[in-house]
Backbone:
């Protein structure tokens, strides 16, 4: 149980209990620590919100899933959830981590993708599975396929599709680096995963 | 049986942890910025996977040891990783070839573990498998580029392959632990694993114009059983220094 410090929960007993939708909307205000333009709900990190009744007054249970196994933001996000709900008066909050099914960019909201694009990051193109590159094909074409950009990838600045990979990995596990051959600007792409 | 499962989980976690530690030594020293980031990101994925495996190992063991105790307070003989992942970084060709040989196997192994009868093992494997598929995409690509690159890059990649080959046999060794857990559907089935790996590696190495050493060559073994090379102690000395010098310290 993660219990935020603050007023005694007893003292808040008379506060009206929020609805599940309200709690979701509060969580939707929590920005991702690495890409602050997008929320943790937009990213698909929050998998469930429920209230569990119990003799001691019960608790709100928020289920979250890590993006990449080693993403250091996961720990910060867990702390932000507890803090945000404490600010809204929810003192008894329990976080559950779920890893199955594994997180995928297919869970990213359309508004999240728009916000990413506006921020200068080319959003993932779904479904992620369709963008996977067959390993057996690498090295057997005119040029290595690991080089190729996902179909439909656009420069977030000028919208051109004539783009090239500069690095499979970027500043965070979830991004790769590309350059636009039309406007010549480099840009980040939130990888399809 | 629980002991066998604990040991098996250590093998999975230790492979990821030790290789991650090796890759971290490149941070700030990569031959190009993109490579530096790639190695750091791969290491980050692997450390995340190691945490998942070792946390679960601690649960299965049920003696109150968590991921940190398992990572920082075991000595070399208690580590269960493959000898391949503890090989020194060497030059960039050595690091890259080690990564490729491991990725090509790791990806196949995780694809089998997704079908484990143990739900938590299947879940971790599914999560890790998506990350490892990307590692393999990069290492395959670079093996082809550098193997089929300049005379110098070709020579270095071939030398790395010849040097590391003797450490690949252990990936397919089957001991009593594998047999017991395989029979229960918990472990990755080793059936056909070696053939699949040889087939995959054979195609990539051919595309890279590299000569695959003889699959039947004499192979080193012992890491899975805790018999490590002389390099393991040094690796752990560095990785475990803080917890040994200041027990229980936390960020």
Residues:
């Amino acid at each position: 149980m993660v219990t935020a410090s603050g007023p005694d929960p007893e003292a808040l007993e008379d506060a009206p209990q929020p609805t599940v939708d309200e709690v979701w909307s509060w969580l939707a205000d929590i920005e991702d620590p690495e890409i602050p333009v997008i929320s943790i709900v937009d990213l698909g990190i929050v998998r469930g919100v429920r209230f569990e009744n119990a003799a001691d007054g019960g608790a709100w249970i928020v289920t979250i899933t890590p993006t990449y196994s080693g993403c250091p933001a996961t720990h910060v996000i867990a702390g932000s959830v507890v803090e945000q709900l404490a600010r809204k008066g929810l003192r008894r909050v329990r976080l559950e981590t779920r890893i199955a099914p594994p997180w995928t960019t297919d869970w990213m909201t359309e508004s999240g993708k728009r916000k990413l694009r506006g921020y200068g990051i080319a959003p993932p193109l779904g479904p992620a599975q369709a963008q996977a590159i067959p390993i057996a094909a690498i090295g057997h074409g005119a040029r290595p396929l690991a080089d190729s950009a996902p179909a439909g990838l656009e420069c977030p600045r000028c919208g051109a599709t004539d783009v090239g990979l500069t690095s499979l990995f970027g500043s965070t596990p979830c991004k790769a680096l590309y350059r636009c051959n039309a406007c010549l600007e480099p840009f980040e792409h939130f990888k399809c995963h | 049986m629980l002991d066998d499962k604990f040991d098996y989980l250590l093998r999975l976690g230790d492979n990821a942890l030790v290789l991650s530690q090796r890759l971290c030594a490149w941070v700030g020293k990569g031959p190009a910025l993109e490579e530096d980031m790639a190695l750091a990101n791969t290491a980050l994925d692997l450390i995340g996977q190691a945490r998942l495996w070792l946390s679960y190992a601690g649960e299965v063991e049920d003696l109150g040891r968590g991921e940190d105790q398992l990572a920082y307070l075991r000595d070399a003989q208690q580590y269960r990783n493959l000898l391949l992942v503890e090989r020194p970084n060497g030059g960039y060709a050595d690091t890259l070839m080690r990564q490729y040989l491991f990725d090509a196997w790791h990806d196949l192994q995780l694809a089998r573990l997704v079908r484990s009868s143990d739900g938590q093992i299947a879940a971790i494997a599914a999560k890790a498998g998506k990350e490892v598929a990307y590692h393999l995409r990069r290492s395959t690509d670079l093996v082809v580029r550098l193997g089929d690159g300049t005379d110098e890059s070709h020579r270095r990649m071939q030398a790395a392959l010849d040097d590391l080959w003797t450490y690949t046999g252990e990936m397919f060794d089957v001991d009593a632990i594998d047999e017991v857990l395989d029979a229960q559907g918990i472990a990755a089935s080793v059936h056909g694993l070696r053939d699949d790996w040889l087939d995959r590696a054979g195609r990539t190495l051919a595309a890279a114009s590299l000569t695959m050493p003889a699959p039947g060559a004499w192979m080193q073994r012992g890491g899975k059983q805790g018999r490590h090379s002389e390099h393991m102690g040094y690796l752990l000395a560095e990785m475990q220094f803080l917890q040994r010098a200041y027990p229980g310290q936390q960020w």
In short: The radius of gyration of chain B is 18 Å.
